[in-house]
Request: fold
Amino acid sequence: MDLDELRTELGEVDQQLLKLVARRQELASRIGAIKRAAGQATRDYAQEKRVVGRARQRAESLGLPGDLAEQLMIALIESSLSRQEQDGVAASGRGTGKSALVIGGRGKIGGWFVRFLGSQGYSVEVADPSGPVEGCSHRHDWSDGALDHDLIVVAAPLGASNQVLHDLAAARPAGVVFDVGSLKSPLRSGLRALVDAGVAVTSVHPMFGPNTDLLSRRHVVFVDLGNETANQVAHELFDETMAVQVSMDLESHDRVIAYVLGLSHAINIAFATALAESGESVPRLAEVSSTTFAAQLEVARAVSGDNPHLYYEIQALNDYGTESLSALLVAVEKIRSVIRAGDEPGFVRLMESGRDYLANYEV
Reply:
């Protein structure tokens, strides 16, 4: 066989593989329906371990690397779980006969909530000056019309959201209101105005990006503002998913986020800045890239490619933001000091301290 014939046959094998993947997805969807009917959890880690182990053994018996089989099965399992989770959310019909207004629904996280609520059966209306979202009714200005929705989600930029919350407090809608801001410091007065106005309000922070499909091991933070009705409605939106639901108070949220987002963003921005100003070209660095460098480069690339205005807000608008940045400066100075002093035991102590702390940390 010549090269073209071999490539044609390879393409046919690829098509067969995709047909098998589609068949697997169909079976996964049916398994998910049986799990829901029986009240079983969507994710079964013991079963996943068995599936991966079985695949590794079979691959090795065929002369294939076990790691290849494991990576392939993990990708297929996560895709199947996404299908089951989405089916479960849709099957719940939690929003059937109800309406939702998403203020800022054309934005990235706003768009995620438009799709998420729509999948639950909500009739979703988008309020966004940048234009409509396909399949949803639309208004340019959220205040141009009735606010008789069962749910109002504020997904506007942080800089504008506080005023939106204040204006909603003045309007006193009957439905549940929540924001999805990454920070709560700049929204504090607006959220309290809603509380004082007697509106059923809570605050939500989805700790994942807008392209997320599978919510397993993803966290959703709920900031309790004292309204049980709003808390319950917000929590129930995620009950059919595998998201980890975390509750905390208003002040604790931003102190934690200063480290979870602020510190991690700052480290990666600093890493990218140092490389950009080093004079070394990316191709040259890639030629001698280590495993650690490659992993860090991927994270830094993702951070650097995201919305810089949002990242600035996360740093600048957090009342506790400088706390984590100061901790970063102190840590870097400690490392520099022990290196300059030739203090190997001091360097070892720094690494051991970090190792001991991280040993008890689970994502």
Remarks:
- The two ends are 51 Å apart (CA to CA).
- The domain at 253-359 is CATH 1.10.3660.10 (6-phosphogluconate dehydrogenase C-terminal fold).
